[in-house]
Amino acid sequence: MSVLRSGFPHRPAHSLTTLAGVLLAVLSLLLGLPGTAGATATRRAPEPRHPGQDWAGSQIARHEGTAAGTAPPASSLASVEGVDVSSHNGSVAWSTLWNSGVRFAYVKATESTSYTNPSFAQQYNGSYNTGMIRGAYHFATPDTSSGAAQATYFVNHGGGWSRDGKTLPGALDMEYNPYGSTCYGLSAAGLVNWMKDWFATYKARTGRDAVIYTSTSWWKQCTGNSAAFGAVNPLWIPRYGSSVGELPAGWGFHTIWQYTSSGATVGDHNRFNGALDRLKALANG
């Protein structure tokens, strides 16, 4: 004799399976809707469409201008002349630059986790073989993948470091987004955390604190003028004109100044803020 019990009625097993399937389908639909937590966690921007057109300062010149007709005065303080190059420069005449007084170079190695500079070997090794101190940099796209993923890709594709006296620590290029939203669709806190992730990964892989390339205007707009990096990461600042100008929060001085985008032979020219022995000290860590 069967006994009826109070509470929920018994449901056949096939009914429970059907109900579970319906609930799972509804949950999947919700996670696919714009603005939901699941979509935020997985959505990424497409990989860069024209990485060969993105280099240190390409977007600075576009958004902030080039101050045509101005040039920095000869410095009364110790400084070292340098350049930065990417694939748009092609094969670089390093001996010409050396003879003009250039003693260091930064070379674009990577962008996101999909692009490597096809001219990297000629530029990175060519500057080294001419006698220059050289380093590599990564053009950041924080909306395509994590900071850790991009730092790992950079180190694996030319952005490493060795204590040979002629290799500078890697540099992270943070500037206006060439593909959309100025700040890559991230909040100030989101961008700061992305950079922390990149820098921590780079240091774990190389033992060095990387250089950061950024402009004061972009930094204020996109990080809320964060002071989180000034005590650790050397500042490479672009400003095309007669002076460095205002620095981002956290930095009391700059390490490298990109002072023009139209210099001799390659366009982008820089000054290291110190004598050659201090540049060598930066290379040696």
Percent helix, as a range, is: 25-40%
Major sheet strand order: 1-2-4-5-6-7-8-9
- Compressed to H and E, one letter per element, the order equals HHHEHEEHEHEHEHEEEH
Q: What is the count of DSSP helices, taking H or I runs of 4+ residues?
A: 9
Strand content: 5-15%
| Uncertain stretches of 5 or more adjacent residues | 1-43
Compute the separation of the termini in Å.
86 Å
Task: Report the mean per-residue pLDDT as an integer.
Answer: 86
Give the number of DSSP strands.
9
Shape, per Cα inertia axes? globular
Radius of gyration: 25 Å
What is the makeup of the main sheet? 8 strands, mixed, barrel
Structural class: alpha/beta
Description:
Mean pLDDT is 86; it is low at 1-43. The protein has an eight-stranded mixed barrel. The N and C termini lie far apart (86 Å). It has nine helices and nine strands. By secondary structure, the protein is α/β, with parallel strands linked by helices. 33% of the residues lie in helices and 15% in strands.
Summary?
With 285 residues, this protein is α/β, with parallel strands linked by helices.
Key words describing this protein structure:
285 residues, alpha/beta, 9 helices, 9 strands, disordered N terminus
Which helices and strands appear, and what pairs or packs with what?
Blueprint: H1 13-31, H2 37-42, H3 58-64, E1 80-85, H4 94-99, E2 104-111, E3 115-116, H5 120-130, E4 133-139, H6 147-156, E5 171-173, H7 188-206, E6 211-213, H8 216-223, E7 235-238, E8 256-260, E9 269-272, H9 276-284
Parallel strand pairs: 1-2, 2-4, 4-5, 5-6, 6-7, 7-8
Antiparallel strand pairs: 1-9, 2-3, 8-9
Helix pairs in contact: 6-7
